[in-house]
Amino acid sequence: MTRKLPAITADSAPFWQGGESGQLQIHKCAACNRYFHPPAPICPSCCSREVAPQPVSGKGKVLSFTINHQAWRPDLDVPYVVAIVELPEQTGLRFVTNIVGLPPEAVRIDMPVRVRFEQQEDVWLPVFEKDE
Amino acid sequence: MAPRVREGRVMFDRIFEKDVAISGVGQSAVGRPLARSGMQLTLDACLEAIADAGLTRDDIDGVACWPGDNNNGDAFSPVGPNALIGTLGLKVNWYGGGYEGPGPLAGVINGAMAIAAGLCRHVLVFRTITEASRRQVDKNAGALTNKTVGRDSSFFWQWYTPFNVLSAINLMALYTQRHFHEYGTTPEQLAQIALTCRANAALNPKAIYRTPLSMDDYLSSRMISTPLRLLDCDVHCDASTAIILSRADAAKDGPNRPIRIEAMGAALHQPWSWDQIDLTATAARDVGEMMWARTDLKPSDVGSAQLYDGFSILTMLWLEGLKLCPRGESGRYVEGGQRIARNGELPINTNGGQLSGGRTHGLGYVHEACSQLWGRAGDRQVKPHNVSVVAAGGGPLGGSLLLVRE
């Protein structure tokens, strides 16, 4: 299924294209050492501009999820799982993604997951699969 | 009034909204769809509201609207202040309308500020929506894929649409699932929002869905995005709603007992984001804290509540955010439906809300709150009371009004 792709900007490129080298890249502040998402040119915690993408482990856990059954577009393969995954690097560090590679009804909150990249054009979408 | 402290900071040493009152309301027909244009519906609502306040168009010196003319293919808001001012021949000292702000009540909040700032005496606030007509033509008009051509560069949707979050329901479902997980909330508890709204809608001739609804009907309704079902979603309609805000001293001259804005909430102390906020508190918590910090009234003083139900979970989050029940307890609070029924301790969404009454999107709740406070609600009138709360929005969007009938 063809996905709606995001605009790539100087700020967002590391997140969307880190997968090209197999790495999930999350912005981190050098001044206060905190990660943050979505990526931006300033740290929301301390206002330092010393921010840059950093590779993270690619591990995570499911914070919440939903099985979408509605075909919002005719070419959409349903059902599929939309989730919020929290990364182990920092409490609260999280983003919306998909859980793939297992039956939707098998997904659980707190399930350990690991990143996998789905390439479409110049975007490597960070989706997650169960971490066995 | 002594300065009020919130989160350790002194704030709110001037509660200006107390000098603002609702003096009249109006609403067009509500239908799915209606053979009337957005402007026709807008005029129906606005002219009725002006007359209800005992005013003429010459008295109206301000116009407010959320989200203004905002029509990216889905008929979400086909008429804004710019179009209305000339059409209705108004002469205004201030007008405003735009999407960014504290949710669907932002027009009321902005209008109240314009009055308090001394710019206006009578502000016409309106909200028009023709989503039902639009969906007759394109069933998927609301899908996010239709909203951006090419790459998604929207400030927030760009983080969601690539993962096929193509409707807000997916985000609401994430909140719901987390609420179920953290607090043990059940589908049967959530169902009570839909069941309550449908029971109330049966007594509202304008409501879209009026046939009785049972728990079995709810539980067997189509799953859209787990755990949210079709009956957890509001119903599109064509409608326009208008209210007149007046300076409190000017409102006293009108035919209706003024309904004062006792306090407003418009806060956001978290990122403007659907996934970076507290998933089970959302902006509702910030809004509620602000509103209660601006009044001596307490949640126990509230006689009825009109709480946004674009999706049923949002009503639950508003119950908690406005401290009408403890955090995490909304499931148990609504269980069985007795507390929130028309004859219960806290009647909610007394016209059927948006789930059954129709997605008038914001001002419909204010219209209903005033109808109840004025004793004009006919068959659906609840026990007499003087204090009502209205809240609208979901996720990072949120605003609230505490209304007191003089």
Topology of this structure?
The complex is a heterodimer of chains A (132) and B (406).
Chain A: H1 13-17, E1 24-29, E2 35-36, E3 51-56, E4 59-68, E5 80-86, E6 94-99, E7 112-120, E8 123-130
Antiparallel strand pairs in A: 1-2, 1-3, 4-5, 4-7, 5-6, 7-8
Chain B: E1 4-6, E2 9-11, E3 20-27, H1 38-52, E4 62-65, H2 81-87, E5 94-97, H3 106-116, E6 122-130, H4 131-137, H5 168-183, H6 187-201, H7 215-219, E7 223-225, E8 228-229, E9 238-247, H8 248-251, E10 259-265, H9 282-293, E11 304-307, H10 312-321, H11 330-334, H12 353-357, H13 363-373, E12 387-392, E13 399-405
Parallel strand pairs in B: 4-5, 4-6, 11-12
Antiparallel strand pairs in B: 1-2, 3-9, 3-10, 6-9, 7-8, 10-13, 12-13
Helix pairs in contact in B: 6-10, 9-10
Order of helices and strands of chain B: EEEHEHEHEHHHHEEEHEHEHHHHEE
Instruction: Provide the gyration radius of chain B in Å.
Output: 20 Å
Which segments of chain A are poorly predicted (pLDDT under 50) over 5 or more consecutive residues?
none
Approximate shape of chain A: globular
Give the ordered list of helices and strands of chain A: HEEEEEEEE
Organism (chain A): Parazoarcus communis
Keywords (chain A): DNA-binding
Protein name (chain A): DNA-binding protein
GO molecular function (chain A): DNA binding
Quickly list its features:
heterodimer, A: 132 residues, mainly beta, five-stranded antiparallel sheet, three-stranded antiparallel sheet, B: 406 residues, nine-stranded mixed sheet, 13 strands, 17% strand, ChsH2_C (chain A), DNA-binding (chain A), ChsH2_Znr (chain A), NA-bd_OB-fold (chain A), DNA-binding protein (chain A)
